[in-house]
Amino acid sequence: MRGRAKLRLVLALLVLFAAAGFLLSLLVGPAGTSAEDFWRFLSGRNQEQAVIFLDLRLARAVLAFLVGASLALSGAILQGYFQNPMADPFVVGVSSGASLGAVLAIALGLRASFLGFSEQGLLAFASGLGIVALVYALSQRKGLFKIETLLLTGIAAGALASALTSFFLFMRSDSFDQAVFWLLGSFQLAGWKEVWTVAPWFAVSLVVSLWLAKDMNLLVLGDEAAQALGCPVRRVRRAFLVIASLIASLSVSVSGIIGFVGLVVPHGIRLLIGPDHRRLFPCAALAGGTFLLYADLVARTILPSELPIGVITAAVGAPFFLYLLHQKR
Amino acid sequence: MRATLTVLAAALLLAFGGEASAGAQTIRDDLGRPFVLPEKTPARIVSLAPNITEILFALGLGPNIAGATRFCDYPPEARTLPRIGGLVDPNIEIIQSLRPDLVIAFRGNPLRVLERLSDLSLPVFILDIGNGLDTLYPLIERIGRVTRREREALALAASLRAREKAVETALGAVASRPRVFVFLYGQGLWTCGGQSYLNDLIVRAGAVNIAAPLPKKWALYSRERIVRDDPDAVFVLAKSPDDFEKARAWLAGEARLGTIAAVASGRVFLLDENAASRFGPRLVEVLAAMARALHPERFGGRP
Q: Exposed, middle or buried: residue B303 (CB in 10 Å: 0-12, 13-18, 19+)?
């Protein structure tokens, strides 16, 4: 019962913070609009700034929230999947693989779309999933994961993908800003097109992860125990790996690599509300979205010119992570 | 001759174009995207590069500029323009809030930002950085067309051509072409390769760029190559005379390039970095400065 009350409190606070974050995101920006302007826009009396409020600020806030939610959900899934609190989309190589795919799609000049995916998103997903499958295959020993092997394999595969990404970026001469975008992330160019790239697949993945959350709880007991308790282990594992890679890859394809969200947010939420994945998944997604919403707000207001958002998430995420590690010991 | 023909052709085009249709003229920008010409001179222009800002001012369009980058500092009036960010980080929200009726961009701006601006249905016209004076005049004329200042643009281009011709006439047929190295003072040994407009200026100034074989606009050079090439003269692109002195001292001392002909004979010259780094009207001044430094005897000075 106490747990439930705590869960409610956490959820209420998260929703409150998220709502405040959206409001702030709409009000604050370099164009210097006042709250009065916003009110006049809302009441329909002055549509002059509709483009700024809707197409620029709201689209950007929604995308930041969606990407944050996707990365945190992906991290929560991967941490359960590998039964390892160090797992996240970046560590297991999805992010680097996805950015390689996206950059490759641009370098090859692919522009078409398929099943609602942009070519960029599709190739990002393919190479993100590819890297994860590779890391998975290489770090498995007799059906077991050794933590060190997983981490090292992920780091090595990620570094390889990053090297290839840099290679394709630097082959083109006008790519400095592109390099910063892909390696550190940004929502500067966010629009509704990017929102629609991520939103449907995030929704599908969230539903699937909630549906399979009970099975994830069983997987924590070990694959054999889970199987004995009636969980179709192989199918569940495959589904989780695909959705975790999918939402992380699509996020990277619209905003570049944004680190630490997938690592720190699920970790922090697990400490707050416990390891039950039925609660962990939605709460982590909500918290990740809120975190990135505020991170983007800081990234675009702290300096006259915008900072890459990866700088903010690492600056906040890394110390927090160190604190968590220290606490645990 | 070719110049007169171009002017004639442009004049003809104007005469007939103006008559044929009052509103629906379309031209293509340097990315090949169609662009509908405005009927009259835009009143709120956003410029995304310093050379574009400079050309706009030269066409008398200073009061029509609504925003420019933080690097737009010439002419001095440009310094008080509202800032829209930098070359690689123009701020979309600020640009949108200025409600521009024309955005003139260049190929060095991130394409994704320009696409985003076009998506917001802002009229974006994208220009390329050319590789010599022969592309500078058409660039000016194209800016004249999209701002409906065709006559002023033709006049400006013609006067720049006249300046260029004057240098060409003074130089005549130069007997020997000194080999020069262009040094961008700052981080590393940056120079201009064979595809840069500065390379074109060097050739027109009666000299040879030692980095011309590099098929690039800007390139990193190595000290070893400079020693091997042993240039007769060095042009330093420096922001101030102070920086120029530092660059000269660096070449002679720290870089251990004191033995190359240019440094040993004192033929290290200052070029105004601000003028030389912008693909704009002041390039003919840079050309004149280069020619005078390399061939003083042709300009009434002592050899």
A: exposed
Structure tokens of B254? 């720290």
Q: Do A56 and B88 touch (CB under 8 A)?
A: no
Cβ pair A292, A71 in contact under 8 A: yes
**Which residues, including other chains, have CB under 8 Å from residue A94's CB and lie 6 or more apart?**
A74, A128, A129, A131, A132, A244, A245, A248, A249, A252
User: A23-38: string of b/e by CB count within 10 Å (b at 16+)?
Assistant: eebbeebbbebeeebb
pTM: 0.82
- What is the per-residue pLDDT for B235? 96
B96 touching A (Cβ < 8 Å): yes
Distance from CA of B88 to the nearest CA of A (A): 6
The single residue listed with the structure tokens 């574009």 is B52
Which domains occur in chain A, in start order? 2-328 (1.10.3470.10)
Mean pLDDT score of chain B, rounded to an integer?
89
Q: In chain B, whose CA is at the least distance from the CA of A178?
A: B110
* Range 24-43 of A in CB contact (< 8 A) with B: 29-33
Instruction: Give the pLDDT score at A77.
Output: 96
Q: Is this complex scored with an ipTM above 0.85?
A: no
DSSP B76-125: GGGGGSPB-B-SS-B-HHHHHHT--SEEEEETTS-HHHHHHHHHTT--EE
**Chain A residues with beta carbon closer than 8 angstroms to that of B88:** 176-177
**DSSP E strands, B158-248:** 179-184, 190-192, 208-209, 218-220, 233-238
Count of beta carbons in the 10 Å neighbourhood of residue A178: 20
Residue A123 has pLDDT above 90, yes or no: no
Whether the CB-CB separation of B211 and B221 falls below 8 Å is answered with yes
In this predicted structure, the answer to whether residue B174 has a pLDDT above a threshold of 90 is: no
Those residues with Cβ within 8 angstroms of residue B280's Cβ, 6 or more apart along the chain or in another chain: B50, B51, B54, B55, B58, B136
Token pair 């944050």 in the structure block, residue: A68
Residue-range domains of chain B with CATH: 2-161 (3.40.50.1980), 174-299 (3.40.50.1980)
Q: What is the pLDDT of residues B198-226, one digit of tens each?
A: 999 999 999 999 999 988 888 888 888 89
